Amino acid sequence: MTIPTPPATPSTSKRGLLRALLGFGVTATGMVVAADPAEAAIGSQPARRPGADGKRYGMLVDIRRCIGCQACTVSCSMENLPPLGQFRTTVLQYEVDTKVQGAPPAMVSLPRLCNHCDNPPCVPVCPVQATFQRTDGVVLVDNERCVGCGYCVQACPYDARFINHETQTADKCTFCEHRLEVGLLPACVESCVGGARKIGNLNDPASEVATLLREHKDDVKVLKPDLATRPHVFYIGLPEQFVSGIDGQAGVRVAAN
What we know:
Elements: H1 14-22, H2 37-40, E1 57-62, H3 71-80, E2 90-97, E3 106-112, E4 131-133, E5 139-141, H4 151-155, E6 162-163, E7 170-171, H5 177-180, H6 187-191, E8 197-201, H7 208-215, E9 220-221, E10 233-236, H8 240-245, E11 253-255
Parallel strand pairs: 1-10, 2-11
Antiparallel strand pairs: 1-8, 2-3, 4-5, 6-7, 9-10
């Protein structure tokens, strides 16, 4: 069974909901908002705030090495302490129909997290500028400024954001920027038993991540490239069906081409 085509009706789609929320053109703060902020976000990003000088962080996930153990999910929760039942990163299990008669479906483990895009749709839709991007590419949330409106949650095409049940503000993966700043790896990378996750400075051609991206350039994929968000979480071994066909955080059965 193939992935069902998402409903195109504005009232049931994420983009339609976002348009309905913001389509009045003016927020409570008096800011003028485009009719379709998810689309208006691309190419109209606010100026980035200071980050690690000369660096552009990116993560590489090798699906072939991921065993679905959830060590990354647990270590992320231990490090960042989101509310019970909410996660900054997940590893979802999918069944892929191999279309081989008599053969069972293949299992694919797909790590998901914030993609720290170069054109993040979540940033310009924030009416109070609580969501911002640094010059090193890391997208963060100022929880003291966030009003919990949820616009950024709806704008994210990767379902990587949520409203924290305890703080009532937007929450997401931060690449563990507090660890990067002191020379440590993000919790999910450090705990990955299969070595499936790598992070590094893409501006440094000698970095491990930059080297691996060059060596596997023909196999590297990103999620939803057609949205032009320029995500900086890259995948090796990602089945083609997953590139544009994965929505939400629920597991689905995916048919082989």
